[in-house]
Amino acid sequence: MGKILSKINGPRDIQKLSMDELDILAEEIRELIINTVSKTGGHLAPSLGTVELTLALFRVFSPPTDKIIWDVGHQSYPHKIITGRKKRFGTLRQLGGISGFPKIKESPLDTFGTGHSSTSISAALGISSGKSLKNDDGMVIAVIGDGSMTGGEAFEGLNQTGHLNKNIIVILNDNEMSINPNVGALSSFFSRKLSSKPVVNLKREIEAILRSVPGIGDNIVKVVKKAEDAIKGFMTPGMLFESMNFQYYGPIDGHRIDRLVETLSNVKEIDARILVHIMTKKG
Length: 283
Fold this sequence. Notes:
Layout: H1 11-14, H2 19-40, H3 44-48, H4 51-60, E1 67-71, H5 77-85, H6 120-134, E2 140-145, H7 152-164, E3 169-174, H8 185-194, H9 197-211, H10 217-235, H11 239-242, E4 247-253, H12 257-268, E5 274-279
Parallel strand pairs: 1-2, 2-3, 3-5, 4-5
Helix pairs in contact: 4-12, 6-7, 9-10
């Protein structure tokens, strides 16, 4: 077991590491997954693609207060290793061992039992609604990928979430098994900067000033929003999600921990429904 991984016993340990140490940890986790799955069998490639994302999620958010839902579940091996199951990881998919999918009975950090695709967004909406009723703190994050966005339930979840104005964060892990958008450096830079707190606050202040113009304020705001949508449509592939009342940011390189942490830290502060689009390589 790797030098850094041997010191990781839970998500809080991730927050103590430097970016360089996180990069080393990512490689140690990949090595453990490859060595284990070569013996036990399992979903190797999807989990290898989510190592940096998993580390970034635990760096920015605070489970179990914040709820992370994996869809489909075979992206979750790095999650299992970090959440106290690294010593049992060799029993993966074995009789009496740990499951190949998130399992509520296995860990309190397995928020939702996942065995089928396209369920995470609907589950996130349900958990977010329950939190609102109980006045519970914490955010709800759904990670959907590996083709799951092609399922109808995923779009039903997006549509209903937008309709109910429930604030969740959806992370679309796009390994080109579902959609294949523009992934240029300009698009990534544009989205990361648009999600920053100063830019979000500036946009709100400008909108308030424009709306205050007597008689024509609302019309000016509509024109400005159309111009912004046109720029986003040119720079990013996210207008589909914007139409369902989600703020779209991406595509982001899903193997750059620093960029993932920057983007997730920014969107965490935005009071809205968020979809972050990341690009990863399966395997």
